[in-house]
């Protein structure tokens, strides 16, 4: 598998086990990106006001086919944080309203909810999910025990950031629909990582990053909002789409897609990224990554005198996994891994725990995981950074 690394721009000197944070862009997709930028600079007026918009629509169409939703229900956004700030700001939360979530959400979005809930006296309820995960039924029982008559919104990651677990969002969306509760799904890690079919999942709101597992350049994500909520979604930035001179059929599109002058070339690379995945038989590569992960997750955990966070099944694991570690100085550990051993891997401190998170992308192979294992042995032998 690791022969694929030469197709990426990653520094060959670095053992790169952190695809999950910001992704990595393959050379052909990055060239496509630069071609769009050249077109833009050659004829900025035509591109920004005319041809670029057509290319943007084509790109959106390709994306909506890939994730199975209506094109007009999607907006490109620079990242999931911007997408969800747009939504959360517009929710009209009231004092006493409750937002039910888990204790394993992404820190920036916990802060967003804290900020908007704090303004009005709404409550952001972090339902504790026990680790290691047991059965799906146990997860759902724990999650739903946080439900009260005041629950107005459910917010949950499809793949969590600190613990790298797949949560059963389909079951949660189905039950929430029965209960008439709005669902907001943080699918930052979902697109091109695990299957996504928005018509089947049917959430009220969903965001996904494209610069992670779909391999576009940085600064490309999307926001999906179900039609019935779109009229509530004011943009974070008011621009020409408000009282639009030439309104389209969708106020949602008009309001959000143009927020002042900027380079939207990253958004245009979705078709090239999808082609790259096709050309390189990514479905088979992903399968190989998942089986590598299932083989090595328990091995690395044992090396760290720790444990795996869930059953070794596609229901809970994609191409990323986290291991709780005993690290008295996580910052120094991360620094040592990178500076001394040239391994790029996140050491995540979250809720009083520290985790080592490993990403398995198609450019990673056994050799890199073996390197990690040897380095862990060295660090244990030579330092007190891992106990
Ligand atoms: C679960 C989750 N949500 C959201 C994000 C989005 O982060 P950003 O908006 O900074 O790209 C991430 C990034 O890693 C994440 O892991």
Q: What's the CATH class of the largest domain, please?
A: Alpha Beta
Q: Give the averaged pLDDT, no decimals.
A: 97
Distance between termini? 32 Å
Task: Compute the number of strand runs.
Answer: 12
Radius of gyration, taken over Cα atoms and rounded to an integer in Å: 21 Å
Q: Topology as H/E string?
A: EHHHEHEHEHEHEHEEHHHHEHEEEH
Largest sheet: 7 strands, mixed
Overall shape: it is: globular
Query: Spans of 5+ residues with little confidence (pLDDT < 50)?
Result: none
Sequence of strands across the biggest β-sheet: 2-8-7-6-5-3-4
Count of helical segments?
14
Say what the CATH topology of the largest domain is.
Aspartate Aminotransferase, domain 2
Bound molecules: pyridoxal-5'-phosphate
What is the structural class? alpha/beta
Content of β-strand: 5-15%
CATH architecture of the largest domain: 3-Layer(aba) Sandwich
């Amino acid at each position: 598998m690791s022969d694929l690394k030469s197709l990426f721009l990653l520094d060959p000197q670095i053992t790169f086990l952190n695809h999950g944070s910001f992704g990595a862009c393959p050379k052909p997709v990055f060239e496509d990106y630069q071609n769009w930028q050249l077109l833009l600079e050659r004829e900025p007026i035509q591109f920004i006001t005319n041809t670029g918009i057509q290319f943007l629509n084509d790109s959106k169409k390709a994306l909506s086919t890939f994730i199975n939703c209506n094109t007009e229900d999607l907006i490109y956004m620079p990242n999931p944080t911007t997408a969800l700030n747009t939504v959360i700001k517009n929710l009209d939360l009231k004092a006493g309203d409750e937002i039910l979530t888990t204790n394993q959400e992404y820190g920036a979005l916990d802060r967003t909810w804290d900020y908007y809930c704090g303004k009005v006296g709404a409550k952001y309820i972090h339902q504790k999910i026990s680790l290691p995960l047991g059965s799906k039924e146990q997860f759902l029982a724990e999650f739903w025990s946080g439900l009260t008559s005041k629950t107005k919104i459910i917010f949950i990651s499809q793949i969590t950031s600190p613990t790298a677990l797949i949560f059963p969002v389909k079951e949660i969306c189905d039950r929430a629909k029965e209960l008439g509760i709005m669902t907001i799904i943080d699918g930052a890690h979902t697109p091109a990582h695990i299957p996504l079919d928005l018509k089947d999942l049917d959430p009220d709101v969903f965001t996904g990053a494209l610069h992670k597992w779909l391999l576009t350049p940085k600064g490309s994500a999307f926001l999906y909002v179900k039609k019935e909520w779109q009229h509530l979604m004011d943009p974070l930035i008011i621009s020409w789409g408000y009282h639009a001179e030439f309104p389209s059929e969708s106020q949602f599109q008009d309001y959000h897609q143009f927020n002042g002058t900027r380079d939207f070339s990253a958004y245009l690379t979705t078709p090239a990224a999808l082609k790259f995945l096709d050309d390189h038989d990514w479905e088979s590569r992903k399968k190989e990554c998942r089986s590598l992960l299932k083989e090595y997750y328990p091995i690395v955990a044992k090396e760290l005198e720790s444990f795996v966070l869930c059953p070794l099944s596609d229901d809970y694991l994609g191409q990323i996994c986290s291991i709780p570690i005993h690290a008295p100085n996580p910052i120094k550990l991360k620094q040592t891994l990178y500076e001394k051993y040239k391994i790029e891997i996140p050491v995540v401190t979250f809720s009083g725990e520290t985790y080592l998170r490993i990403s398995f992308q198609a450019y990673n192979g056994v050799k890199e995981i073996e390197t990690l294992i040897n380095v862990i042995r060295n660090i244990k032998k030579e330092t007190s950074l891992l106990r």
